[in-house]
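User: Run a structure prediction on this.
Assistant: Running it now.
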Amino acid sequence: MSNTQGWGLTARLVSKHFGALGERIAEAIASFDPETATEADRDRLADTLRGTAQKLAAARAAYEKEQRDVRELRTLIANDEQAAGTLAERLAAGKISEATITLFCDELEANKARLPQEIQEEADAREYMDELQKIVDALSAQLAAFDAAARKAMQALATARAQKDLQELRGERQRQLDGLKGLSGRSSALDALSKRAQKIANEAEGLRIVADIGQKPLDQKAELDAIRKSVSQPEQGAESALARLQRLAGAPA
C-alpha cells in the first residue's frame, strides 16, 4: 500500500468514526439542553433559507438581464429587417456604399444567429430561478413546520416539567403528612416535651406543698389570736343599759 492510499484510508476512517462521534455528541447535547439544540437546528435551517434566498435574488436579476437582452435583440432584428428595404433603395440610388450594406447585413445575420442562444440562456436562467424558488418555498415551509413542531415540543416539555413539579410537591406534602402522622403516634421530641412539662408540674407541686407547710403555723397563730380576741372582749349584747351608761360616763359600775 502506498503512502497516498494509506493517508486516504486514514482520512476515510477519521471521517467515518469522528463523524459518528460528532453525531453522538450532538445527540448528547440535545438531550442535555434541548432548548439550545432546537435553537441551533432552527438557526441552521434559517441560515440555509437565507443563503438560498440570496441565490434566488441573484438568479432573478440574471434572468431579468437575459430576458432584457432577448427583448432588445429581437427589437434590434425587427428594426433592421424593416430598414433593409430602405437601405436597398439607397444602395440602388448610390446614396450608401456596398461596404456599409455588407457590414449591416453581417450584423443582422449575426444577431439572428445569436438570437436562439440568447433565448436558450433566458430559458436556462428561468429554469434555474424556478428551481431556486421551489427550494426557497420548500425551505420556508420546512421552517414554518419546524417552528410549529418546536412550539408543540416546547409546550409538551413545559407541561411535562409542570407535571414533574406537581408530583414533587405532592410527594413533599405526603412526606409532611406522614411526619405529622408520626407525631400523632410516637415522637421522641413530644415525649421529651411531655416529660419536661411533668417535671415542671412536679416542681410546682413541691413548692406549693412547702409553701403550705410554712403557711400552716401562721394560719394557726392567726386563728389563736382571733380566739383570744373574741374571749377577751365581752359581747356588747350582754351589757345592760345602766352598765353601758356608767362605762361611757367613766363611772364605776
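Helices lie at 3-32, 34-92, 98-185, 188-232, 241-249.
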